[in-house]
Amino acid sequence: MSTEIPNAAYTSAPFIGKTFGVTISQLNKKFGRATVLRDINLEIKAGEIFCIMGPSGSGKSVLLKHVAGLELATSGEVKIGDFDASDPATREKVHLALVFQAGALFNSLSVYDNLALYPREHRLSDEKGIHERVMNALTILSLEKAAKKFPSELSGGMKKRVAIARALVMEPQLLIYDEPTSELDPVMSATISEIIATLREQTAVTSIVVTHDRQLAFSIADRIAIIMDGRIRLVGKPAEIQASKDPDIANFLNPVIDLKNPRFKQLENHHE
Length: 272
Description:
Number of helices: 9
Strand content: 15-25%
CATH architecture of the largest domain: 3-Layer(aba) Sandwich
Number of domains: 2
Shape: globular
Order of helices and strands: EEEEEHEEEHHHEHEHEEHHH
Radius of gyration: 19 Å
């Protein structure tokens, strides 16, 4: 499924003019004898912000890799629009960008050259056109003055913003974020949340966000999926997720600190 977007270009380079939804059908993934994803079914609408939440080790990042075409399913399928996410040819038909949790910036390259690397390697434009793409992306995220800096000179929040700017240079129709607010203070986390929401408003890009950040998910997501033990437990709007009576979901979203019966002691007993 895809949706036409009028006037969606945010750089001078051509934007394809549509954004894609994602359909995940009966997706299963095994690593050896371990089943990591179990019968996953999701319909992510074109142009929405869709958050995926769940405990550590629940399968969130593995699911994200299937959407990005970085992992092959044991069974089932993932489609971006009408295209198979696992087919390398899909990368020629859909502009997909992934914002990695750690940023994945090249330390030996300046901010400008980190952003220019993809269009240079793929010969998307001449140097003048690349310069325009890069500076427009930096301007959107208020990073123009950081163009000549190196990653080692940036704060954690600035690295996250540079990673998002690098994704924008690709003019994505599907933008995937892996824990975009991890290791950030509350103010910078709120800033990144605002950026994700603003980019969707400006470009109508479909945004999939894997996160533990409740504030982000409840503030900007159109819908949220909760995944536990490799299964989707609940999909709904933020208010519906918050109102869930499922004790496991309630405990995940609002854990109570119990000094008399701490969780790590329960884990010890569970494994004995």
